[in-house]
UniProtKB/TrEMBL annotation:
Provenance organism: Streptomyces broussonetiae
Any one Pfam family match given in the protein's UniProt record, by short name: MFS_1
Keyword Ion transport: no
Transmembrane segment boundaries: 12-30, 50-69, 81-100, 106-126, 138-157, 169-188, 200-219, 225-247, 268-292, 312-331, 338-356, 362-387, 408-427, 439-458
Record keywords, A-Z: Antibiotic resistance, Membrane, Transmembrane, Transmembrane helix, Transport
Entry protein name: MFS transporter
Amino acid sequence: MASHARTRTAHPTPVLGVVLLSVFAFALLQSLISPVLPVLRAELDTSQDLIAWVMTAFLLSASISTPLLGRLGDRYGKDRVLVASLVALAAGSAVSALAPGIELMLVGRVVQGVGGGVLPLAFGIIRDELPRERAPGAIGVAAALAAVGGGVGIVVAGPLTDTLGVRSLFWVPAVLTAVAAVTARLVVPPSPSRSRGPISWLATVLLAGWLTALLVPLAQASRWGWTSAAVILPLVAAVVLAVAWVVTERRSDRPLVDMRMMRSPAVWATNLVSLLFGVGLFAVMVFLPGFVQAPPESGYGFGVSVTRSGLLLLPMTVTMFFAGLASARLARRFGPRAVLVAASALNATAVAMLAVQHDRQWQIPVALALLGIALGTAFSTMANVIVAAVRPDQTGVANGVTANVRTLGGSLGVAAMSAIVGAHTPVGGGLPTETGYTVGFAVLGVAGVAALVAATRVPGRAPTTTR
């Protein structure tokens, strides 16, 4: 094991504070930019197709980086890789803030995406540094913050842009992550457990290949056309590369992602629930602001501003956080399966409410408050199930896979919603019809029902491994 100048003398409370700040800073970036893409497009004087890559580049980079950095943290020390991830977040944010054009902006967003490693590393550090009795609650808080940050990003994007300008949406995360990086270097002690053996770089390349071939056409399908060669051929390539990746991982003595670990009922069932929850979460965050901002003359919507639309999502953010705090206690009392089943049922109900009850403004925050309870409870419980089910040296990569699966689900949800809403948009342009949103939210509700079924496969009591 490599030597490290610091010793394991850090008090767990400051370590937890640094970890939570790191998680929140990254989560904020996941949604902070999406509400102001039209403003950013005008400032950069670029096309609609190119500005969409501001989100796609970040999503793709984070999807590739998250499991890889989780594995690097398990191999070389979670403390070191956490600092490197935070430095990448800060540097990418600064590059994007200073970018004079779309090209450099995209470079900054790719660098920001490297910070996706913060999530799996955070769960691993909590497991390493906190007493056993405090770890589940702390993991629940971290998982809740990871979800809450996305909601907060949408809420504060409008006020920050109005007050400090659109570039403040990059400067604020840059400052937060720079502070977190310095503090993490000083406070977080060396990892007590390390995995051995080299990193499988062939598996890394294959993983990056199939994720790119999958996510890019999904993100651009509404613009390129679902039947176009630019969408179909990469999706076919994604399947081929994914099969090659699985075969490579199964044959490797030191896989990037251990397929035996993935076959554990606690792991695969939890990841399936995570995928299906991601479908609804990302699609709601992306499309609901546009729905409520539409003028009433369109037959739906309330004609609210960007800032007001963000405030309508505030109940989801608040309930998500407090539900995350309570999740560990609920799981101890009722078991993780019961908690996930209940959360999945509430998730499906909340999204169905958006589909059938959206004529009055108060109905939106009520449905979102229920959705927040479901998401906060589920995400925190899933994180604890994964941590309890794998060895300490697998914590980073296992949680990296779960975060990645949620992102993939989000991509599928956004793509499906885009296709449905796009099919109900006038050919010559203009606003989508109400039917498009109603059908889209109903489809998200079906994904919620599927999550309910998947949650029944999670073990009643999470298996525990040696700490």
